[in-house]
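Weekly structure sync, notes
Attendees: PL (lead), two postdocs, one rotation student
Agenda item 3: pending single-chain targets
PL asked that the sequence for the first pending target be pasted directly into the notes so everyone works from the same version. It is reproduced below exactly as submitted, 451 residues in total.
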Amino acid sequence: MSTEILIIDDNPDIRNILNDLILDAGYKTRMAANYNQALKEIDKKLPEVAIIDVKLDKGDNDGIELLNHIKQKNKDIPVIIISGHANIEMAVKSLKSGAFEFIQKPFDKERLMNFVKRASENYELLKQNNYLQTKLFHSFELIGSSNNITKINEQIQKVSPTDSRVFICGPTGSGKELIARKIHKASNRKNKPFIILNGALLDVKKYEQELFGEEKNDGSISYGALEKATGGVLLIDEVSEIPLETQSKILRVLIDQKFKRINGNHDIIVDVRILCSTSKVILEEIKNGNFREDLFHRLNVFQINIDSLSNRVQDIPLLIKYFSEKISENYNLKYFNIDPENHHLIDYSWPGNVRELRNLIERIAILEPQDPEKISNIIKESLKTNNSENVNYYKSLSIPLKEARENFEKEYLTSQLKKFGGNISKMAKFVGMERSALHRKLKGLNIKDLN
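Predicted structure, written out during the meeting:
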């Protein structure tokens, strides 16, 4: 399927020349003769490449406005800017706004078509990479044998066939979006859209526009997440970041099951299953006045809590094996073997959680080291943590021997307890202690059983 290129120029001769050149090269085209036409064409269907004249009928830089409009919708779309009144300042402004290339009229046809070819190839590569990343993400399962992951998998099976709202809590990178996708995949809405609205990434002024959409003065419509998700699922990621004013409007939508677009006069009926997630302690956010309690109770019909990776260390070997196989398969790379018992992997605190572990394994896959020692070195270098071992060492020099020994024992046994998922029998065998003696030691050090 050939790339579709949108040509925007108010000069009919230039428009037709460009159209003939691009069609002859085997691409598809659409054309717009002015600013409003261009806006409608972009909103109707995003092009894969756009060629835009800087000066149209609206103002001196309306081509730059269209460039920004496209980039807001999809930053990956290459835009070639052309101008008959070019200067260095204009070229710099275009490139800073995200233009793929800038070319001055009258343009060299061969040079222009070279830009078009490179833009098309660039877009196809980005699209292919996004497809691989999506395929890779969508193929992931919620892996683990810990009590936490076992319970979550059971919860997903129970809640998915319903239309209940779900509130997913857990630290950044732990797998909240994956849980939401699994709920969608196992639900009656699985063949309908799955839309994500990220509360942490939006411009504060654009929350409502992104959520409800907008009816513009020229008659065009910008659809919001609620309409895009019609019949399907809307995940409001980091919902605790949404401003209180917008929270009240979301609450009204949940009560009335309808809303109006910005500047709109007609009610839009809501047929969307809403899932929410947060990496913050939501009850503290409510207590501090950052999140509406009444909205929380509307959204929190069913709650799923996922632990940090450091609290489910026994899942790490399973995740290593799983990600190694999946990444090798999806990227068509030679399988590589990572020792799941590598102490750097087990002892590390994983502040980035499962996402950080997955990224590390992907890094190893790309480098393709076959020597186990090289793999171990990559792991060691990647997980350096600001010389924390040295900090602990010097800290231990300033306290009595008995206290230093207790600190070490507590840290060591807590780590082992996590490693064996709270299984005292297995842990006792590994550390070389009688089960009853280990129980007494844990009690004496005030280490609580994971179960």
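Discussion points:
- The first strand starts at residue 4 and ends at 8.
- The chain has 20 helices and 14 strands.
Action: rotation student to compare against the earlier draft before next sync.
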